[in-house]
Write a structure and sequence with these properties.
10-stranded mixed sheet, 479 residues, alpha/beta
Length: 479
């Protein structure tokens, strides 16, 4: 559901401004530990864990075998599921720290993937294929590379007898990629809060972007906060009648008029600490008129002539436009009941990504006002979790990440980003566990095929990201 995951579709314009090249492939022979990691990654990708055709529970079984082989026992491992979703189970594993006062760190990952059909793909989506500097396969980027890094990290620390100050907890869950499945992160937050209690969580959503396929790493992101996903149904009803005697009072026409109004409407500009920091820091790197507008939007008072001019330019970039406000868009249509009858009902699903802190009812009321037709109804039909809460942007979180970005990607900025998509971090933040998407991994600006055809991950990025995240977690765990 991230999808984004992600957020910097416009990042390609930063190409050539900053240093940090990527190799086309992992050229040096793999070390034994890298070979073992690759085998784990391969096993994760090649186990179908989509909701429709696969099983997260089966994959969690395989993860448990790896962890037990590393030395974890019954006291360290918790399995969870619910009877009516037997294939959507997950696992929590705990590596105790030495400190009695420092709170743990939670590593979060989702095991499920969007379903992939072999007939649509160039390659078998459930076979890890390394080709041209990329790993191909469903889940290679979203998010089994990070899952493999977390599992590998926990296993190696146990085998090597590493004693961190902070306890490390790993939670691998299901249900992130749909709104109707058993969501393991939500279940843990609401029913097993003590099990996953932590100072903060590291989750998906961060990482860097290249200037394009085979290009340089131009930015690394720390994912800090996200929007709330809510669906509304707008519906027109009518007595209908025979199609041979039509009248203007028509449910489909009324729905069409409403959608035209929605298309023309923009929710008002909004900023928070994360988006201000993003535009202020990314603007100078972007350069040109767009870069100047990014800096201006972060510094000028909202509503001022300077702010309005900057907003108008930023709105021409779809990613920036979405980061600056709540957005709503029609995604599904239905209407009518016979080809020779006037429609008695016509409706549309409107998918909204709500800026943090804005209540869902306030958005519904805005849609009613925009449609301005008392004969139509606007109802909230579902949501993807509680109201989004932005975690604090603190030196404790940003400092170690900035140091490692400078080490691994010299000259590349670390920029905080608010996701316009959605992650399971929203459930953690609702119960007081801030969730961040760390830098380290990176992908191409087109999203690397996540949720789509021929999903891929850059080979070099996976191995470098593994080293980066191992160092980052150790830094956090011993601060």
């Amino acid at each position: 559901m991230k999808h984004g995951r992600q957020l910097l579709a416009g990042a390609a314009a930063l190409a050539g401004v900053m240093a940090g090249g990527i190799a086309a492939a992992q050229e040096a022979p793999l070390r034994p530990d890298q070979t073992a990691f690759r085998a784990l990654y391969k096993e994760l990708v090649e186990t179908d864990s989509s909701i429709t055709t696969g099983s997260c529970t089966l994959l969690a079984d395989k993860v448990e075998k790896h962890l037990r082989a590393a030395g974890y026992g019954d006291a360290d491992i918790t399995r969870f599921a619910v009877p009516d979703h037997p294939k959507e189970g997950g696992i929590v594993v705990i590596l105790p720290g030495t400190s009695k006062t420092l709170k743990p760190i939670l590593l979060l990952g989702h095991l499920d993937v969007v379903v992939a059909k072999r007939e649509d793909w160039t390659r078998d989506p459930y076979t890890l294929i390394e080709e041209g500097g990329y790993f191909y396969g469903r889940g290679t980027s979203d998010m089994k590379a990070m899952d493999a890094i977390w599992i590998d990290m926990m296993a190696r620390m146990k085998k090597e007898g590493v004693k961190n100050k902070r306890t490390l907890k790993l939670a691998l869950t299901c249900g992130e990629e749909t709104s109707w499945a058993f969501n393991g992160a939500q279940y843990l937050a609401n029913n097993k809060r003590d099990l996953i209690d932590a100072e903060f969580a590291l989750n998906e959503g961060g990482g860097g972007r290249t200037s394009g396929p085979g290009g340089k790493v131009i930015v690394q992101n720390m994912h800090v906060g996200e929007k709330t996903v809510v669906n509304y149904r707008i519906e027109a009803t009518n007595p209908g009648g025979h199609s041979s005697i039509p009248i203007p009072d028509n449910a489909i026409y009324e729905l069409s008029d409403a959608l035209v109004k929605l298309r023309a409407f923009d929710f008002p500009l909004m900023l928070n600490d994360t988006t201000k920091a993003f535009f202020a820091k990314a603007g100078p790197a972007r350069g040109g008129d767009m870069g100047k507008a990014m800096v201006t939007i972060a510094t000028a008072p909202i509503g001022s002539p300077e702010s309005k001019a900057a907003e108008a330019l930023l709105n021409t970039d779809r990613s920036y436009h979405s980061m600056l406000r709540t957005t709503c868009v029609a995604t599904l249509l239905d209407g009518g009941h016979a080809n020779n009858a006037l429609p008695q009902r016509a409706g549309a699903n409107v998918n909204c990504r709500i800026f943090p802190g804005v209540p869902a009812e306030e958005v519904r009321a805005t849609l009613v006002k925009v449609i301005a037709d008392p004969k139509m109804t606007v109802k909230q039909v579902d949501d993807r979790g509680p109201l989004a809460k932005s975690p604090p942007l603190t030196p404790f979180i940003m400092g170690p990440a900035e140091k490692l970005v400078a080490k691994y990607y010299p000259g590349v900025p670390l920029v905080p980003v608010m996701s316009t998509g959605a992650t399971d971090g929203i459930y953690l933040e609702a119960v007081g566990i801030p969730s961040y998407g760390p830098p380290g991994l990176y992908g191409d600006p087109d999203g690397s095929g996540a949720h789509g055809l021929n999903e891929r991950a850059i080979v070099k990025a996976v191995y470098t990201g593994r080293e980066f995240l191992n160092e980052l977690v150790k830094e956090y765990a011993n601060k």
